Amino acid sequence: MSDILSKKEVEQFVLNGFVRIDNAFPQRLADEVVNHLWKDIPFERSNPDSWVEPVVRLGMYTQQPFIDSVNTEKLYSAFNQLIGEDKWIPCRNVGTFPVRFPSVQQPNDTGKHVDASFAGNDPNNYFEWRVNVKSRG
Prior knowledge:
Elements (H helix, E strand, L loop, with lengths): L6 H10 L10 H14 L14 E4 L5 H6 L3 H11 L13 E4 L37
Antiparallel strand pairs: 1-2
């Protein structure tokens, strides 16, 4: 597959650390992922009155629809273009999902955060992970 990102999109990625990729995976796959998430949400999908919290956090999924959604040909092309061919590792799990619901309550997780990417002394303890603040890509 040829380059899918424009020069402007690559520059935006370098400047802002993200780029939007439309239609990165098919709707069928999105529907499967949503169905998996609803199995873990403690509310009734068809009953909005049961949605009593502003946000529910769900975490670390390894089921096939999740893995397939982050390992598409289109995404691989973007990864290769941004990082270089064979210079990245395919995803084998998908992290947390903050699922938001309409609510008059304020969620308690609206602050900004930085994702850590380097394991500390104990790689299994995410509280020990570190951030390289000098990294520029």
